[in-house]
Amino acid sequence: MNNLTHSGAQKSSAQTITGRAILLEIGAKLGIVDSFLTNKEISIADVAKSTGIQASWISAYYAALAHAGLAVPGPKVSNEITHYVAPPDLQQSINDVGYVLWGLGSCAPLIANAHHFVKNLPSAAETYVRDGEHVARTSRWMGEQDFYPQAEAAITASRPKKIVDLGSGTCGLLLRCLRKLPEAQGVGIDLSHSACVKARSIVQAAGMENRVSVIEAPIQSLIDNPAPLEGAEIIHGGFVFHDLMPDEEATLNALLKTFRRTAPNGALLVVDAVPYGPNPDEHAFSAAFTFLHSHFMGRRLQPESEWKERLSAAGYTRVDVAPLGISGGRIFTARA
Amino acid sequence: MNNLTHSGAQKSSAQTITGRAILLEIGAKLGIVDSFLTNKEISIADVAKSTGIQASWISAYYAALAHAGLAVPGPKVSNEITHYVAPPDLQQSINDVGYVLWGLGSCAPLIANAHHFVKNLPSAAETYVRDGEHVARTSRWMGEQDFYPQAEAAITASRPKKIVDLGSGTCGLLLRCLRKLPEAQGVGIDLSHSACVKARSIVQAAGMENRVSVIEAPIQSLIDNPAPLEGAEIIHGGFVFHDLMPDEEATLNALLKTFRRTAPNGALLVVDAVPYGPNPDEHAFSAAFTFLHSHFMGRRLQPESEWKERLSAAGYTRVDVAPLGISGGRIFTARA
Fold first, then answer.
1. In B, which residues are within 8 Å of A25 by CB distance?
2. In this structure, what are the phi and psi dihedrals at residue A298, rounded to the nearest 5 degrees?
3. Which end of chain B lies in a sparser environment, N or C, as judged by fewer CB atoms within 10 Å?
4. pLDDT grade, residue B13 (50/70/90)?
5. Which of A10, A281, A285 minimises the CB distance to B92?
6. Name one Pfam family in it (chains A, B) (predicted).
């Protein structure tokens, strides 16, 4: 039968990613892996205490994580493993798993009700709403390596004194940038009340309340109230502008003009996805991402050429484009 | 920024698999991809007609499949693509996607309710039941290359005159074997009423009703009624025996002895998973598979050594083991 075992040649990727996704999703649901992912080390006893889950269950879970290459057991104490630390490639694993969990987890309510979306997209989109916290978590995981580092590097490269982040969530990206730029101020704008509450508490815990303002508002409000943009040397919008297309195209154009007019010396960084990414290694995910947006979310992604024209029409004369790790992802750097 | 794009190096696997999984799951939910996966070609008009879904929707879906490397467009007719054929690696893609959809789709009700499983496994297992048809489909997809071909080769290698398949589902494996063995008879046993009804209709459509008997019964019933096993030259059980462990261990032992006694000249093929597969490339998926079985399904997988002892105790003196494509999967060939 040895000639039959050859089919395993390609198995490591799909199976490995799936196995890791299953385990990390279980851990995230139970809150028994969060501190490990943040701090890169945990004690079984501490996790059991903080969650109220039996230590034997936590132990079995971490033993499974270790077998899956997601944790490294510490030395045995009285024949038991009491601590685990992160392996060097944990970030990459989380990043990979983020895609699977976004696609098959966060988007599950859309896919499960595909029949309704085929019949009536607006009605289905109102009925089957994704879990915002799940989307936020899986997006954060995908971004670990595939868009946050690139955005952070682009934001900090010119050492701006003032950064405005549109759709700032819990201000994770903004805080990382400000730590690298001790003299900079930041403004985070997000329409989610719960995200802003959480952001303010994180900002305070970081002792950054004198440097960061959190504004709870839709980004559209900046057209009438552009004051937060004044003096901005970097305006960053990560995966927020595509939510204005196609229904609010005029609003998007007005917003871009507002950025250009209110912060004339600033650069605008647009991080977003183009449809059906043309590079072979981005084909499959970008196809699914584009199709979900068009046929399940009522969104139209814009190709590079359209973004360049739109930014040019808003008064930005220089626009550079670079790819991101996420398939179809692009970072547009627009300057006056 | 060119130095920042390097993080895409490993992206193709996780992103590609996720993209393909999203699209194939949408197609399966809508019934617009089934005939394509079976026949390896489709016409947009035919799919639209048979499903009642707008041809423009089907067209957009197949264009996305094509971009994702899952379909190849035929020539344009009046500037439109009307037909698609399968790419050479479609089987491999389906096989890969099967894992993701089994883990994050079929098992979603377990993972989503992890808190309940932690508190009370038996109660949770009764409350949150997986969709049997979804499990059957994703298992079939995983098996496309990773266990059915190996099982088929092992079953047909000795050119048996009578094959008994335990947990035969819709008799797909049995029919494939019988087509290669024109003089053989087959018996399929499954406890699912709907699977047996479907199996009988498939057997009839294949004109094989004189060669295949479908018995709707739990495999445990063979201990008291071993008649279907008489004269069997191959008895095959694929991923069925682990459902007897640990609660029905005595039943499993009695079953094995029944096989040995009733079909003394036959070989028993046990296709099943061992816990925490020791080979590095099976670590991650096997860890998740094992943990789900132990902590969410109340099942205990048996290591190779335990299987060998158990088969030996039942009277099988020669037991060979070979790996399968699925992580932790093994095929035990037991002979008198």
1. 104, 111
2. 65, 30
3. C
4. confident
5. A10
6. Methyltransf_2
Please give the single-letter amino acid code of residue B184: A
Cross-chain residue pair A29–B114, CB shorter than 8 Å: yes
Query: How many C-beta atoms surround the C-beta of residue A250 within 10 A?
Result: 9
- Asked if residue B306 lies in contact with residue B126, where contact means CB atoms within 8 angstroms, the answer is no
- The tokens for A281 are 């290694």
Structure tokens at A293: 């947006």
Decide: B335 and B260 in contact? Cβ < 8 Å. no
Smallest Cα distance from B204 to chain A, Å: 31
ipTM of the complex, rounded to two decimals: 0.94
Q: Choose the closest CB to B68 out of A5, A68, A283.
A: A283
Q: What is the pLDDT of residue A144?
A: 85
Query: How big, in percent rounded to 5, are the helix, strand and coil portions of chain A?
Result: 55, 15, 25
Q: The whole model's pTM is what?
A: 0.93
B147-278+296-335 CATH choice from 3.40.50.300, 1.10.287.130, 3.30.365.10, 3.40.50.150: 3.40.50.150
B160/B266 Cα distance (integer angstroms): 9
Question: Which residues from B are below 8 Å from A22, CB to CB?
Answer: 103-104, 107, 111, 288, 291-292
Whether B116 and B127 have beta carbons less than 8 Å apart is answered as: yes
Contact A60, A53 (CB under 8 A): no
What's the mean per-residue pLDDT of chain B? 94
Per CATH, domain B2-88 is 1.10.620.20: no
Of B57, B287, B327, the CB nearest to A118: B57
How far is the C-alpha of A57 from the C-alpha of A127, rounded, in Å?
A: 37
Strands B212-216 and B185-190: parallel
Q: Residue A127 — φ and ψ, nearest 5°?
A: -80, -45
- Give the nearest chain A residue to B157 (CA atoms): A1
pLDDT digit string, tens, across residues A219-237: 999 999 999 999 999 999 9
Q: Do B150 and A1 touch (CB under 8 A)?
A: yes
Taking CB atoms and an 8 Å limit, are B7 and A290 in contact across chains?
A: no
What is the secondary structure of B3-45 as a DSSP string?
Answer: GGGGGGGGHHHHHHHHHHHHHHHHHHHHTSSHHHHHHSEEEHH
- Cis check: omega of the bond before A226, within 30 degrees of 0: no
Angle at B258 between CA B255 and CA B263, to 5 degrees: 130
Closest partner residue to A104 among B21, B95, B149, by Cβ?
A: B21
B91-125 tens-digit pLDDT: 999 999 999 999 999 999 999 999 999 999 999 99
Residue among B23, B101, B323 whose CB faces A287 most closely = B23
Residues of chain B with CATH 3.40.50.150: 147-278+296-335
CB < 8 Å to B320, chain A: 1
In this complex, do A13 and B17 lie within 8 Å of one another by their Cβ atoms? yes
Q: Mind telling me how many Å the CA of A214 is from chain B's nearest CA?
A: 29
| CA separation for the pair A94, A38 (Å, rounded) | 11
Give the angle B164-B271-B322 at the CA atoms, nearest 5°: 125
Burial degree of A51 (CB within 10 A; 0-12, 13-18, 19+): middle
Distance CA A300, CA A298 (A): 7
**Taking a C-beta distance cutoff of 8 angstroms, is the pair B311, B283 a contact?**
no
- CA A239/CA A258 separation, integer angstroms: 19
